[in-house]
Write a structure and sequence with these properties.
The structure is a single chain. This protein is mainly alpha-helical and about 375 residues long. The protein is built from 23 helices and no strands. Helix 4 (about 55-65) packs antiparallel against helix 5 (about 65-80) and helix 8 (about 125-135) crosses helix 9.
């Protein structure tokens, strides 16, 4: 992402009529997920003669289902000699005579081609196959393209792909839209998307609703969603229900949920059962320890993953433990980011959080760094 200073310079240059600056602002807002703002800047860039703005507008409007707007901008670009715009315009005007069953065959074949190319590391070919599958109606391909755009930071593109799949009733895409909305601080929008996904049977969305309800202080609603997600097979929710049972003092029911979560592959529950294989019954002292230390099971599982050489999994588990308030996990994350990953700013953020939580090790590290 560009720096604030770069964005400021683009705004100043755009005010003087600079087409490139306007186009850059369109790209910036598109990647940030502000599609309406992005469209406004692309239109300004196109009117000023930027060669790539009009075809990009055509593609954006096509993705949003606005055929007349897509045709307008693609025609504009095609008349200016843009070859890709000419191809997109021809495709837009070609009657779709393919039958539903034939479309499904194309979608499945393209999806298989994408998965095969991806497994061989042929990423450009994989993307082309995914796009072909998506255009033939594969919601799974749309989800993959959306996820790929998210990973690249192109949030605007991700939203467009997920919207297409969600509009076809694909619950996992609705859940991703909820995740994106939550990250952008749009909690009401996130709740709506999660609810749609949960109604479609998406267990991840049920778990996300439980987390949001808990953050809002609605414990009763939070527990209902945790239980519903657990019953739908979500291992994180099973783990959370186990913790709830621990806090209620029902150690036997907690053990049942931990075993279910472990069977479903949950790292924290698996770690606990592995560490206490010879002590299958909960003791009151151990139960109190597990319920009183934030992120205890995830922190334990992260240590095991690290010992097994799975750094990516360890970071994920340490993050979950840190988000639950485990200050030791915050310090471990600071070490990861500040060490091998070279991200000093993120490392400092985790150290600051650990320090706020009263972690003495964080205080020592900051002192040693001269902070």
């Amino acid at each position: 992402m560009p720096t604030d200073d770069e964005v400021h310079q683009w705004l100043l240059r755009s005010a003087t009529g600079d087409a490139v600056a306007a186009f850059n602002l369109g790209v910036f807002h598109s990647r940030a997920g502000d599609i309406d703002e992005s469209v406004a800047w692309y239109e300004l860039a196109a009117e000023r003669g930027h060669p790539d703005a009009a075809p990009y507008l055509g593609w954006l409007w096509r993705m949003r289902g606005e055929v007349s707007q897509a045709e307008k901008w693609l025609s504009y670009a095609a008349d200016a000699g843009h070859e890709n715009a000419r191809k997109m315009l021809a495709d837009l005007k070609t009657p779709k005579a393919i039958s539903q069953s034939a479309a499904e065959v194309v979608a499945i074949a393209s999806l298989m081609g994408a998965q095969s190319a991806a497994s061989l590391g042929l990423l450009d070919q994989a993307e082309a196959h995914y796009i072909a599958a998506a255009e033939a109606g594969s919601v799974e391909a749309m989800l993959m393209l959306g996820a790929s755009a998210e990973a690249e930071g192109a949030i605007g593109h991700a939203i467009l792909w997920h919207h297409r799949a969600a509009a076809m009733g694909f619950a996992p895409a609705a859940n991703r839209l909820g995740v994106i909305a939550r990250r952008r601080g749009r909690d009401d929008e996130a709740w709506d998307w999660y609810s749609r996904a949960a109604d479609g049977g998406e267990s991840d969305a049920m778990y996300n609703l439980a987390q949001m309800a808990r953050a809002r202080g609605d414990r009763e609603l939070s527990e209902r969603w945790f239980v519903r997600a657990a019953d739908a097979g979500d291992s994180d929710a099973m783990h959370s229900v186990a913790i709830l049972e621990l806090k209620r003092g029902d150690h036997q029911r907690a053990l049942v949920w931990l075993r279910r979560a472990a069977d479903a592959g949950h790292g924290g529950s698996l770690a606990f059962l592995r560490n206490h294989a010879n002590d299958p019954e909960f003791t009151r002292e151990l139960a109190q320890k597990m319920s009183s230390i934030p992120g205890y099971l995830d922190f334990t599982a992260a240590g095991i993953a690290l010992a097994e050489g799975d750094t990516e999994k360890a970071i994920s588990l340490f993050t979950r433990a840190a988000d639950a308030g485990n200050s030791d996990a915050m310090v471990r994350l600071a070490e990861f980011y500040g060490g091998g990953m070279g991200d000093l700013e993120t490392a400092k953020e985790w150290l600051a959080k650990a320090l706020d939580a009263g972690n003495l090790e964080a205080h020592d590290i900051i002192s040693a760094l001269g902070g």
